[in-house]
Amino acid sequence: MTPIYADQVASDVLAQVDGGALVRVLTGLYVDSVDVDQHARDAIHRRFAEELDQKQFFDKVCLTNYRRAQQQTAGFNLEVWWSTEPHFVLADVPVATDSGSEEAIGVPNGVSWGEARHVWMPVSPHCVVA
C-alpha cells in the first residue's frame, strides 16, 4: 500500500516541482543527471518510510483494527474446532468469514465481519478457532 501511495505522491509532486530541486531539499545533494526524477522518487519513498515509522502509523492502524474487531466479536461464543486430518489451510488471509452456506465464503464473496454468521481462523492444519 505505501509504495503505491508514495508513487502517486511522487508523480503529483514531480508534475509541479523540478526533480533536482526536490532531491536537494530532501537529501541536500545536487544531482545533475538524466535519473534526477528517479532520485527524487527514491527520496520520497525514503521520507514516506521514515514518517510512517516515526509516527507509528501501522501500529496505530493495527491497534485500531484490533479494538474494532474486539467490539464486533464481544457477543460471540468461542469455539475450537479440531480435525484428526489436516484440513485447514494457513494462508495470507488470517481469518475467514461465511454466511452459513458454502456459496458465500470470505470478503471477496461479499461476506464481511458484519454480515458473517461465522468468523474463523485456522491456527494449525488441524485446529480452527471460531
What does this protein look like?
- The protein has 130 residues and is α+β, with helices and mostly antiparallel strands.
- It folds into 2 domains: 2-55, no CATH class; 76-129, no CATH class.
- It contains 4 helices and 4 strands.
- A 4-stranded antiparallel beta sheet has the order 1-4-3-2, with no helix packed on it.
- A hairpin with a 4-residue loop joins strand 3 and strand 4 (127-129).
- The protein is elongated.
- It starts with a helix and ends with a strand.
- The model has no long low-confidence stretch (mean pLDDT 77).
Brief overview, please?
By secondary structure, this protein is of the alpha+beta class. The protein folds into two domains: 54 residues, no CATH class; 54 residues, no CATH class.
How many distinct domains? 2
Number of helices: 4
The helix content, as a percent range, equals 40-55%
Major sheet attributes: 4 strands, antiparallel
- How is the largest sheet built, in terms of strand order? 1-4-3-2
The rounded distance between the terminal residues' Cα atoms is 29 Å
Helix-strand makeup class: alpha+beta
The helix/strand order is: HHHHEEEE
Which helices and strands, and how do they pair?
Layout: H1 2-14, H2 19-27, H3 36-54, H4 57-72, E1 80-82, E2 96-98, E3 118-122, E4 127-129
Antiparallel strand pairs: 1-4, 2-3, 3-4
Helix pairs in contact: 1-3, 2-3
